[in-house]
Amino acid sequence: MYCGSSPGRSAQYGEVAFAFGAFLAERGIGVVYGGGRVGLMGRLADGALSRGGEVIGVIPEKLRALELAHEGVTRLEVVEGMHPRKLRMSELADAFVAMPGGYGTLEELFEVTTWTQLRYHVKPIGLLNVDGFWRHLLAFLDHAEDQGFIREVHRGLIVCEDDPERLLEAMTQVHVPDLGTWIEKP
To answer: What one-character-per-residue DSSP string does 107-118 give?
Structure first.
């Protein structure tokens, strides 16, 4: 899970984060996330924990030292920095979902999407579209495809839904093309 360490301006973001965490736990789906106790990250973890779900947090030592770690999660892994954090989260996760967030959320989302495109892993990626939060990003991705910077075969790597059940279903339908089918030869 990728989401903001901020709560955002709308209370709906936190409410949906808590509900989504609970939704995942009720379905026996564990949560791997950035390990924070603040913002949407904290609300997501609390939602999953409230239903007895497994929650694994991965947090850099620098952020833990700032007392931002959620010490109540099932397991908290403390790593040296952001790169080890992202790698460890990708190793632990079977899929990736982004909720509203800022630079960090976007950076993590695009990194795992690139890893999927290049087949470093073949794991589905989804956006939980809380109150239309992702509509401008989706328009940008369509524009990047129209301009030839995202291949049509890769545009479907990121799926987006506003309903958690539909999102999980859409993520099961994602197809990752083989490298040889799209790499241009010199």
So the answer is: HHHHHHHHHHHT
Query: Reduced to 3 states, what is the DSSP secondary structure of residue 90?
Result: helix
Closest CA to 53 of 33, 9, 23, 78: 23
Query: Phi, psi (5° rounding) for residue 16?
Result: -70, -40
Please list the pLDDT of the chain residue by residue as tens digits (186 residues): 999 999 999 999 999 999 999 999 999 999 999 999 999 999 999 999 999 999 999 999 999 988 899 999 999 999 999 999 999 999 999 999 999 999 999 999 999 999 999 999 999 999 999 999 999 999 999 999 999 999 998 999 999 999 999 999 999 998 888 876 656 655
Please report, as a single letter, which amino acid is at residue 99.
M
Burial 37-48 (b: 16+ CB within 10 A, else e): bbbbbbbbbbbb
Q: Are 72 and 56 in contact (CB under 8 A)?
A: no
- Give the predicted TM-score (pTM) of the model: 0.93
CATH 1.20.1260.10 fits 11-173, yes or no: no
Question: Looking at the DSSP assignment, which residues form a beta bridge with residue 2?
Answer: 98
Domain residue ranges of the chain, discontinuous segments joined by +: 11-173
